[in-house]
């Protein structure tokens, strides 16, 4: 059985010519009755006709769109060097990657799981799929993976919002869940900290990365998640934490977390974190 793990790829600028192709995939969502774009970066050595592919899905943060990752990272060189497809889907500026009970035009869990991913697997012959994201996208990656076991082979989160109730007046979350005062259960049920029980017994690797600069909240949020994990006895996942000293934005931390085939499920991430 193939195993998936996490590798950190340093984001840096070099003057090199890469052969990766960049495609724009348009998928019509029946759930939302609209066309949604995704940026697809295809490595130079990929052969659609004969080769099953590994891919990583990068989710953007709040206020962003499917072009965000391309603006900040040399995705074509990363795709060529690692030889897997990079998928940057559009999650709207404030969808939080969930099916909104308030806004019927924001059904993004359904879109990703039932509409986008099946088309990606068929079109690009993807048999190994990992997911990660920044901020709102970090929440989205964990949210989609934990709620849909068997869909992803690995999951990562960069400065993800693991507790939506941390601030009930920001980031337009109330537009998707209703006000916290009226619907507190919705806020808690859709927060990652309320889903950690599902981590027990999972077979795919998890990586949570977060900045911890003074005055920043991101580090506190990831600590909340892992204190909860420890209470549940999931101590091994603590080895998948990377705390840096830069803060929330991945352009400050200087790297992104993505995945490729790993040797053994028993191997921990100490070599990756060292």
Provide an overview of this structure.
With 274 residues, this protein is of the alpha/beta class. It has a single domain, classed as Rossmann fold (3-Layer(aba) Sandwich), CATH 3.40.50. Helices cover 27% and strands 25% of the residues. It contains nine helices and ten strands. It has helices spanning 68-72, 75-82, 108-124, 136-147, 174-177, 184-189, 218-231, 250-253, 270-273, and strands at 3-10, 21-29, 34-42, 53-59, 85-89, 126-133, 154-158, 206-211, 241-244, 255-262. An eight-stranded mixed beta sheet has the order 2-3-5-4-6-7-8-9. It has a two-stranded antiparallel ribbon with strand order 1-10. The longest helix is centred in the middle third of the chain and has 17 residues, at 108-124. It starts with a strand and ends with a helix. Mean pLDDT is 75; it is low at 1-17 and 250-274.
What tags apply to this protein structure?
274 residues; alpha/beta; Rossmann fold; 9 helices; globular
Average of the residue pLDDT scores: 75
Q: What topology, given as strand order, has the largest sheet?
A: 2-3-5-4-6-7-8-9
Number of strands: 10
Question: How many domains comprise the coordinates?
Answer: 1
Structural class: alpha/beta
Low-confidence stretches: 1-17, 250-274
Describe the global form: globular
The major β-sheet equals: 8 strands, mixed
CATH homologous superfamily classification: Alpha/Beta hydrolase fold, catalytic domain
What gyration radius follows from the Cα positions, in whole Å? 18 Å
Helix share bin: 25-40%
Can you identify the CATH class? Alpha Beta
Tell me the span between the first and last alpha carbons: 27 Å
């Amino acid at each position: 059985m193939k195993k998936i793990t996490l590798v950190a790829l340093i984001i840096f600028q070099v003057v090199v010519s890469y052969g990766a192709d960049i495609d724009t995939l348009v998928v019509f969502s029946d759930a939302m009755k609209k066309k949604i774009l995704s940026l697809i970066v295809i490595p130079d050595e990929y052969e659609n006709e004969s080769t099953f592919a590994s891919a990583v899905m990068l989710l953007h943060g709040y206020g962003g769109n499917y072009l965000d990752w391309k603006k900040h990272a040399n995705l074509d060189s990363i795709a060529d060097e690692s030889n897997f497809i990079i998928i940057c889907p559009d999650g709207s500026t404030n969808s939080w990657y969930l099916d909104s009970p308030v806004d019927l035009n924001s059904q993004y869990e359904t879109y990703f799981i039932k509409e986008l991913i099946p088309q990606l697997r068929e079109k690009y012959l993807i048999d190994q799929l990992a997911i990660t994201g920044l901020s709102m996208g970090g929440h989205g990656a964990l949210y989609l993976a934990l709620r849909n076991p068997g869909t992803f082979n690995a999951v990562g989160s960069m400065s993800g919002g693991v507790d939506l109730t941390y601030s009930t007046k920001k980031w337009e979350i109330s537009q998707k869940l209703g006000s916290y005062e009226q619907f507190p259960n919705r806020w808690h049920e859709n927060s990652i900290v309320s889903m950690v029980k599902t981590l027990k017994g999972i077979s795919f690797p998890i990586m949570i990365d977060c900045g911890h600069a003074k005055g920043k909240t991101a580090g506190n949020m990831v600590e909340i998640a892992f204190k909860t994990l420890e209470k549940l006895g999931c101590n091994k996942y603590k080895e998948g934490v990377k705390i840096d000293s830069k803060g929330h934005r991945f352009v400050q931390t200087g790297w992104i977390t993505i995945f490729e085939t790993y040797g053994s499920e028993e191997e921990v991430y100490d070599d990756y974190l060292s």
